């Protein structure tokens, strides 16, 4: 359906009742999009990977209407990125569901201050969030994501975010494990509201600490697997009393060992 002509320099058009093919002069060629020139000197962007092999600037290509309608007029959409949550040392990014139309996704990468972070995101159609840890306290960062598709490479909007100071507890997101009494649990929920934080029923990507009196339960196991600090309610009370984030280590329900529990970057070490 697409062929490259060797020596042609003039654009021509031919049509039939069933299908039509338009001849273009190839302009600029890059890894993502190619600029094509029509006979009436209009510029059209076309996915480079859909062109015949060996095409260079000055080549002539025939592109059928079917290919142009299917691929050329519905390119992938530029991804949209936002900041979902911030703490003293973490940032959770979230992007809108990817719309690739006829293109296929090759990879999605996260960039911090222009530097690619780790490996490409796995299952980016389902995993639309990414958590960065170990960030400096009270420091501004810039982020964007880049997707590589069969139709080229697209970069999202750039977002800026400043991590919280120790006195800013609004990023605290508490999940609860097993408590000795319902009254103690309700008191902790009240304290979370007092510091401007949030609490949730289940451990998730935004969870910063798990509060409980005793071990056990689904949330406890999830916190272990995700290396989320598991602390006694006294940690939250200390944060309220001192009006700033307290180190989690002195308040651990059990002292960390080689079982996967570790200090979290959200909690400064005492």
UniProtKB/TrEMBL annotation:
Recorded GO CC terms: exomer complex; trans-Golgi network
GO biological process: conjugation with cellular fusion; Golgi to plasma membrane transport
Pfam family, one: CHS5_N
InterPro entries: BRCT_dom, BRCT_dom_sf, Chs5_N, CHS_Export/Cell_Fusion_Reg, Fn3_2, FN3_dom, FN3_sf, Ig-like_fold
Gene3D superfamilies hit by this protein: 6.20.120.50, BRCT domain, Immunoglobulins
Highest taxon, organism lineage: Eukaryota
GO MF annotations in UniProt: protein dimerization activity
Domain Fibronectin type-III: 75-169
Chain ranges of the BRCT domain: 164-253
Protein name: Chitin synthase, class 5
The organism of origin for this protein: Lunasporangiospora selenospora
């Amino acid at each position: 359906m697409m062929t490259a002509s060797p020596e042609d320099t003039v654009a021509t058009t031919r049509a039939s009742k069933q299908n039509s093919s338009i001849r273009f002069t190839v302009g600029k060629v890059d890894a993502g999009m190619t600029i094509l020139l029509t006979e009436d000197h209009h510029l059209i962007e076309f996915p480079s990977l859909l062109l015949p092999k060996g095409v260079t600037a000055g080549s002539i290509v025939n592109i059928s209407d079917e290919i142009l309608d299917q691929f050329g007029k519905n390119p992938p959409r530029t991804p949209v990125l936002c900041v979902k949550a911030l703490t003293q040392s973490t940032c959770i990014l979230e992007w809108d569901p990817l719309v690739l139309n006829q293109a296929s996704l090759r990879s999605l990468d996260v960039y911090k201050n222009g530097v690619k972070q780790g490996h490409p995101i796995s299952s980016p159609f389902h995993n639309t969030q990414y958590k960065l840890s170990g960030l400096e306290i009270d420091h501004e960062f810039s982020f964007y994501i880049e997707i590589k598709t069969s139709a080229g490479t697209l970069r999202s909007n750039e977002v800026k975010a400043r991590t919280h100071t120790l006195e800013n507890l609004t990023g605290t997101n508490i999940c609860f494990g097993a408590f000795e009494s319902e009254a103690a649990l309700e008191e902790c929920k009240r304290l979370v509201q007092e510091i401007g934080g949030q609490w949730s029923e289940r451990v998730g990507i935004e969870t910063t600490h798990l509060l409980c009196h005793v071990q056990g339960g689904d949330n406890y196991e999830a916190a272990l697997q995700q290396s989320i600090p598991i602390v006694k309610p006294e940690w939250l009370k200390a944060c309220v009393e001192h009006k700033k984030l307290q180190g989690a280590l002195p308040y651990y329900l059990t002292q960390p060992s080689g079982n996967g529990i570790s200090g979290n970057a959200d909690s400064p070490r005492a």
